[in-house]
Amino acid sequence: MLSATFRGNNLSAAVCGFKKFLRLFAVVGCLWLSAFNKMKERKKFETIRKISEIIYKLNPKKNILLTVVDLKLPRKGGVMKVYLSVFPEKEIKDIIDYLNKKQKTIKDEIRKNIYLRYLPSKVVFYPSFEFKLAERVLKLIDESTKKEKGAEN
């Protein structure tokens, strides 16, 4: 009976030790994932900065403001999607078409200036409408607050 109790204590000590190990492993795993995500984000922002510089060099009309809003980094040999904000907005189609035609030059510049694990097979530019959407949301909020103030009076 004494040996059975002794085994039970060892078992509970082992389970307790294993729980501590799992907690430590979870904390270390979260820290590693956090560091990995930070490295990935840093790489994404570095890539956005370099692509902005490349686009600035290739911009045919210097009176147009181009901003790289977001980009989707490709998997192995995939398509890099670059989302641009263009001001004035009437030039957006022309600029997007021009940059999509110059994608070979842009891809070569990316190869020279940015280290990516997998180079994109294609670079495609899309217009970003995030600012338009944000303006609409703000406009709706303003309208609803005006209606609420009108209903209170």
What can you tell me about this protein's structure?
The chain has 153 residues and is an alpha+beta fold. The chain contains 4 helices and 3 strands; from the N terminus they run αββααβα. It has helices spanning 2-58, 92-101, 103-113, 130-152; strands spanning 65-72, 79-87, 122-127. Helix 1 packs across helix 3 (103-113). The chain is elongated, with a radius of gyration of 27 Å.
Topology (SSEs and partners):
Elements: H1 2-58, E1 65-72, E2 79-87, H2 92-101, H3 103-113, E3 122-127, H4 130-152
Helix pairs in contact: 1-3
Span of the ends, CA to CA: 83 Å
Main β sheet profile: 3 strands, mixed
Q: What is the CA-based Rg, rounded?
A: 27 Å
Q: Which strand order do you get reading across the main beta sheet?
A: 1-2-3
Q: Which class best fits the helix and strand makeup?
A: alpha+beta
Strand content: 15-25%
**Tally of helical runs:** 4
Count of beta strands: 3
Question: Descriptors for this entry?
Answer:
3-stranded mixed sheet; disordered N terminus; 153 residues; alpha+beta
Summarize the structure.
By secondary structure, the chain is of the alpha+beta class. The protein contains four helices and three strands.
